[in-house]
Each structure stands twice: as structure tokens, then as C-alpha cells.
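Standup notes
- HV: blocked on the assembly model, inputs below
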Amino acid sequence: MPPQDAFLKVSGTALYTFDCEVAGTLHAKLVTSTMAHAKIVRIDTKKAREIPGLVAVLTGRDMPFRVGLYAGDRDLLAVDKVRWVGHPVAIVVAETLKDAERAAELVTVQYEALPSLLDPVQAMKDGAPLIHEKMEEYSHAPDFHPVIGTNIANRFTLFHGDVQKGFEQADTLVEEEFRISHVSHAYMETQNVIAQYKRDGSAEIWTSCQSPFMVRQILSESLKIPYNKIVVKAPFAGGGFGGKAGLGWEALVLLASKAVGGRPVRLLLSRMENFTSAASRDGMVANVKAGFKKDGKCTAYEVRFVVDAGAYADYTVNVSRTMGYAAEGVYEIPNVHCESLAVYTNKIPTTAMRGFGYPEGNWVLEQVFERAAKKLGIDPVRIRRINLVRPGESHTATGEPLREDAGDPAKVLETLVRDIGWNEKLSQPSSPWRIRSKGFALCVKGPSQPSRASASAIVKFNEDATIDLLVGTGNIGQGTTTALSQLVADQFGLQIESVRVDPVRDTSKSAYTWQTVGSRGLFADGMACLRACEDAKNQILGLASQALRLPRDQLEVVKGAVVAKGRPWLTIPLRELVTGYVYPNGNTIEGPIIGRGTSSSSLNTYLDPEKGQGVPTVFHTFGGAAVEIELDPTTGVIKVLKAASVFDVGKVINPLLLKMQLDGGFVMGLSIGLYEKIKFDEQGWVTNPNLSSYYVARMKDIPREFVADFVETPQSDGPLGARGIGELSMIAVASAISNAVFGATGVKLNDLPMSSEAVWKAIRAQRPDLLKSAMDGYDGVEIPMVARP
Amino acid sequence: MSFGSPYLTLPEFEYHRPETIDEVIELLQKYGGDAAVMAGGVGLLAFMKERLVSPAHVIDIKGVKQLRQTKYTAGESIRIGASVTLSELAANDVLRTKFPALHNAASWIADSIIRERATLVGNMCEAIPWVDSPAALIALEAKVEIAGSQGTRSVNMDDFIRGPVEIDINPGEFVTGVMVPDVPPRKSAFDKFNTGAEFSLATVAVSVTTGKERKARIVYGAVSTKPVRCAEAEKIVVEEEASRRTFRKAAEAASESVECVSDVLASAEYRRQLIHLITMRALERVFEK
């Protein structure tokens, strides 16, 4: 079943915020900082005000608001000082975009430089200059623990068992340092917003976002506008990948609209502005020490993540917390000590991204296991099998008893190994000096959400028994609404065409859901949909029971009609029931059928602030990625020839969409693994702020062969047993590629991305013999015999 | 390569679409330094978006029929007009068989969508260090044909690019095309490395005349601020018998002697490694039986 919106998209008629036009709209442009860390001495707007089309210029002092979701650290425009190159200092509003651009050029800002911090490890040292002097005044959500008086925005610790003892029991130790670079979400539609602050004090927003209800929440809580006076409309978003989940530009643009007397104002970022002024994924440096017994059993795991959170860490405090509690991955390790620190630096702010801390932890853990296997001379499959969690018996890192129906990680491993042909011989490389190899990595993830993250759905029957399904989950290309429509259609035996989800989410009309993040859509909103169907079905059966004069337990809904069980001739089509049943004499009973359903994460708890113990998530999807690669030591180029992805999704709702998610996520993981890196110079400027110098994988870079496979272990509280999958498909890809290189050559690639230059340098440093023989092979010259003395 | 722009609009300009070379020259004379000539616009419009240039007048030469032609005269030359697109060149059989280095360079630039619009002359005139065509044109001893109010002149491609975005063109002049001499028996090849990058990290073009007197040109692009020939490697190829051992010697010489820069795409030492690899490949193709 192809996604329901496929036709709209391929025909170019799907509506994005980018396409929206509101009559009388003014255009906004940002004036951004040219210094990484500096006091604002003076902002001169005089010349800008001379531009004829200019309507307003606003600076930080005009907007004394602090906004946020978890750390609440963000200003709308810089107040008194700037914290990164790209930090918005002023916003100009003009009749045309050109006027706005010209006026923005003419705003001059005088700075007084402050010492800037670009390295998180330096930034967390005692005595480092503070990037946020008044952190104690920020409104931190429960579960977050800033270290006041430092640049540490959040400190998360987790431990169980005794790592020192664990190390003593170990036969061998693995100690490494791993690094990950900042990466861009690289969504197609750059961030853009149209906001209008109306004269009656209400607000209307059109925005390219993932989670319209979260936009409303942030606006209401920070600007003190009642929720029902804010309407957020979210049409299709041209990608999100987490980058449009938290804070956006809505509050800033809304206040700009207020300042110009309530005319609508649009802000649209250029790709460069999106790189330099919007948030990206964090960078990370991890130090890890792990102990293993001779048989491969992991006895202790100690890791410290230092997360480069950039100038603002509102969402990243939760990313770093998640990195911490997910550190143990798919394994059960008796002694674990983990510390995860989100540290402010004078770089671009960071936020959520597909995987949310799990890919970072995976990059460390899955390589540690590979290295240990080699050291101990154990097959990589075996070392994993020995340490794998066992649902029904094991506890997760946070001490949560892993439910019996959580999934089947052992079967995932077995399937993955089979799909990549782990035990089969490698094929011949395309040239003799190239090296073929296979590698894999396992992963797990659940949504990292607060316990009050709930969802709702409304099934609204129309006169002809078609359904308008109201949900809150956003359209970021992930296809959840198609799966939700299928679930609903199925409950009434209808064709999927009978169920429509409006492409525009509207907080005043759509059913509430907390956010469109964390692979939670199908799980949370899906449960709400099923319960709404149940509710509607109860109403329908009650009505039919009166009409047919039969007890309701003898009735069922089949193919769009109510039918008496075992007596198919006793039937009423739904269309004669859904707006009320009319007796032959004209008497009518009951009214239109509207079903409502909700779901909430009632098992979630806050985590113990010291030991990090508790229940942070509602499901764990187990899976893994495997690759067959060809490595060219002469260039360092890694070509992924074959990809295999296997996940225990509980229950497959839409096989085609699932395959698309697995393939698409794999490509994203490959791109981040091999190519993507936001580069900074010594002054904190991004040196590749566009898609011609920030390379994202192209068709020529992706494998020829994709195997997307699944295991089905239904989870009792998931919709038909299903678990989330959206983010999972990219998490283990980079680790699998690196493991393949290590497996064949012993070359350790500890830093992302594994660019060809980085790989070539690593081979040159760690295996000069390999590089030399490859060069000889490449050059095709016989190696001269060395005469013995 | 684009370095990004906060702008969403182009600077304001007046658009002109002349139909003859004389009209182009007239407009150039009239507007002088305020005018820019546009063929495909792939480079110019991006530069304008970034405000690297803000010409008040844009002169689109796609309306000049004479500049849309490619003309081959056997034993003499191939002339490629200034608005001939890269995809037209990719489909040109004469170019493919007689001038393989240029054919390779033209048909591997960017992607097939951009090649529908981008022109060879535009690519060459951009003269940013990472563009592909200049090395091939230098290897093939191309001449740049320039028209202006003072008449026409022709410049050796060797001297045309003076530095990054700096070309030998005077106010009031524009490039009408390039002429590549057809001097058989000559063999040529082009190669580049651009894995994981939108632009080349290193390119090489090799041409070898195999007549009575062997002559060779080995030119590197994208490794420095402008294309550079490597005399050391050329000497080895001219003087020594064609063999893999010779190729390796030439590749090693080039790798050692060509001055490379470090930039956002690659370090100088990686570029030196790539020079070795692409030199081997290009030489092998040139001397392929």
C-alpha cells in the first residue's frame, strides 16, 4: 500500500508552509552575529530605517522572553551578548523580501569580544568563562540537572553494580576515545513560519514543523497567551528528522507581527541561515572502558559522553540524558557506570535528530564489542549472543524489567547475520588491491519522552460512512497517517480510501498529540486510533442492536455493515447508522457517530537523579544493520555494496512503507557515517554552510542491494502489537560500516564521519603495510626483491 | 563551489537578450563594468545570489545563434561556442573520439540536470579552483576566443586563468568560444576524484602527441588556486618508454612536485595522494592500445 499522500507529492500539489500565502504578509530578515562570543555594545538601526519599505526593526531588548521545552535557555534575539556566529541579533520587517534583505544589511552591530569556547572538553573545565551566566534562572523540566556555575547544561549519571569489581573480574580491557561531528538534518524545506498576532489578542501560525501542539505549548507558556487563543497550522513539512521538533522561530515571528500592528509576517531561512542560525545535531566525544571475560562476557562498562551542545541546549539536555541511559544498548552488563554531560560551547545550537542520542551511544558500544571480539578471538556474532538482553529475564540499563513481549533480539541477530550472508564467502573485489568485508551492529531504541506525553484520536463518520480521522501527528514524510488510516479502515472493514486524514494539522481542529518524534507516532497515535474505533464501534453496535432488536454481543461490524453473527441476512449498512437510524415511520434514533480514543505512557517514570534508574520509555524496538563493503586503501573510499536491516517491529502494518523507512534510514545513516560534517573554523564560523560543500549521499553512493527484513514479536499494548520504527533504521549503520573495516583490516575508525581522507589517513597510520601493498597493486608494478646482506 | 548566502533574492538587474555578437559588444560598451555576460547562468546567478557580484545589467548570450554552434574541421580544430551546453558536448561524437580529455571533463561535470544548462565556456570562465574544464582545455592547448569593441583576439588557455575567479578579460570584452587544435596523432584523457564531494578534490588532464616527436602535457586542476602543469611528469612521459613503471614514476613526480593547497574539501597531503592515483589512471588510458 503506497503512502496516501504520494500522488499529491509527485504531482507537486502537496501544500507546504513554503507555498502558503497569507494576504498582506510582511517579510522578515535576521541580522546575525559575526562573533562567536561577544558583548553587544551598540546596535545601529538608523540607516536601515531609511529603506522605504521598512516597517520595523526589533532587537533583543524588545523581546524579553526566554523560551524552551526542557532547559528553557533560549532567547528570541540576543540580549546584551551573542553566543555563536549566526546568533540572531535583530529582526527587520519590511513590505518586500528585498527591502528586508537590504535593511538587514544596513543594521550595524558593534561587539566587544569575549573569550570563546569551541571545544566542549575545555568548556567544562573549572574556571572556564561562562556562556550562560544566569543558568539558575532557567526553567528546567523535571529530570534535568544543570551544574550551576559551570557550562554544563545537564549532568546525567547512571550506575548499577560495581564497575571496579567488574574490571577486576575481566580478562581483557578495551579502552578508546570516540568522536562524532556536528551534522545537519539537511531537510529539503528550510525552516519557515508565517505568524499573525491578531488585534483580538489571538495568534495564527503557519509553520514547517513536526509537532504543532508543541509549538503551541511553547508559545503559550513563554508568551503567556492562553492555549485556545493560539492556532498552529502545520501542512506537509519538507522533512524534519528532529530538527523541526523543538523550538522554532514561531515566537520571534509572532512578536514581530505584534510589533507591526498585527500584520502577518513571514520568515524563511536561506540554506546558509539554516546551517548557521538554526539548530543542528550535537557533536560528541566519548571515553570508554570495558572489561570482558575470556568467553566474551562483558563484566563492566564505563563511559563518559561529553556532548557539544552549542550555544543553546534546550533539547540537547534530553539528547545527552538519553545517550546516557541508552549506553548499554542491547546488552545486559552487570556493572555499568555512565556519565553524560551536555556542555555549552560558542557554536551553533543543537537539538533533536533522528535517533536522539542512540546513534552516538551505538557508535561507541558496538565498536567496543567488535574490538573485544577480535582481542579475544571470538566471532562477533558470538560475543553479542553471549551478552544480549533476554526479554522476560533481563533488566535494562535503567533497571526496568524488560517485558517478555518487548521483542526478540536473539532472532533479530540471527536474521541479520543470515541476510548479510555472514558465514558465506566474500565475493571477489572489483580490483585486486581493494578489500571486501562484512560488518554489522545491533541497536535498540524507544521514544525518549516525558511521562505525560499522550495522544488522542477522533473517528468522525460522514453521512456515507466514510471517515474523517482527526489525529495530531505531523506529516514529515514518514507515512504514519497512511498506517493510521489502514488501522481505522480495517476496524470497520472499509477500504483505505474511505478514511481521510486532512494533510494540514490545526491545533484548533486536530486531535491532540504531544509530539511527532521518537518513532512514537504509530505506537501512541495508533493506540488512540484503535480506541477511537472501539468507541465508535460501541456506539454503532448499540444503535444496530436497537434497530435489529438483537443483543449487541450477537452483532459485529463486517465490510462496512453491521451483521448478526451467523445470520448474515440480518444486516444494516453503516451508512444507515452513522448519522442516526431512521425507522420506517421516520422516527430517528441517536446522532452522528464520533469515536474518541486516547493513549498515554502510564508506565513511564522520572529517572532517579543519581543512579539513573526508572522507566524512561514505552517500548524498545530491537534491530540492527549489516553491510558488505569494498574498501579501497589507496583512496580510503568505502563503498557499501549491500545493506541489510532487520527490526522487530512487533507487527508489520504496511510492508511497503516499512521497507521505505528501512532503506531511507539506512541511506541517512550511510551519509552521516561516510560524508556529513559541519565544519567550523577557529573563530567559530561554519565553513561549509550549504549543500554544495556539505555533502549528502547521492544516488551513486548508495548500495545496489537493500534487504529490509523484520521479526514480529507483538507487544500487547501496541496497536495490533506494533512498535515504532522511524528513527531506528539509521542508528546502527555507521557502526556496521566501521566494524566491517575493522574486521578486515584491524584499522580503527573512531571518529565520524569516515570520510575518504580520514580513512586513508587511518590506514596510513595504523596499517602502512596495507597501504603500500595496495599502492603496488594499483600501480601494477612488480615489487623488486630486496637483496639480503 | 558556493559558500552560502543569507539572501533569498537576486540583486536587481536589467536583463538583455541580444541576438548578434555586435549587439553584445554594444551593450558591453554601454554598460561597462556594470554588465555581466551570462550563458547558462549556473555560475553567475549563484554568485549574484551570494552578492559576490551585483551587475546592474545581465547580458544573456543564449539568443546569439552563432555562439550556440560547435564546428569541427578535420586536421584543423574544433570550435565550441560560448553557449554550447555540457550535455550537447557529452553527446558530441567528434569530441568523444578526437578530444577525449575534453569530452570526459565536460560530461562528468556536476550532474545531468545541471549539464543541460551549464556551458563549457561558463565553467571555464568561472575560474574557481574546483571547476573541471580548465585542466582539460590547457592539456589540449586550447585558445580562448574573445570579442570586444577593439576587435577579436585569442589567448592561450595556459594564460587565460590568472588566479581564483580571475581571467584575462578586459572591460567591454567577452568570450565567444574556445578553439581546440586538432593535431593528430594525439591522445588524451581526463580523470578526477570527487567521492563524497560535490566538487573535485583533484583533476588531471593528459595529452600526448605520438608523432615523430613525442610531446606531453599533464595538467592538474582543483589542487591549487589555478590549474598547473607538471613539467617533471611531462618529461618522464616524453623521455621514457610507456610502461606502468614509467607511469608510476611520473605519478610519483607529480605527487611530489605539484604544489597543493589545503581547503574545506581536502588537505594538501591527501591531494598529493590523489594526484598519484589519477595520474596513473589517466596515463593508462592515454597509452591504451
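- HV (later): unblocked. Confidence is low (pLDDT under 50) at residues 782-789 of chain A. Chain A touches chain B at residues 29-30, 32, 97-98, 101, 104, 268, 270-273, 275-276, 634-635, 637, 674-675, 679, 687-693, 695, 698, 701, 755-757, 760-761, 775, 778-781 (CB under 8 Å).
- Next: hand off to the docking folks.
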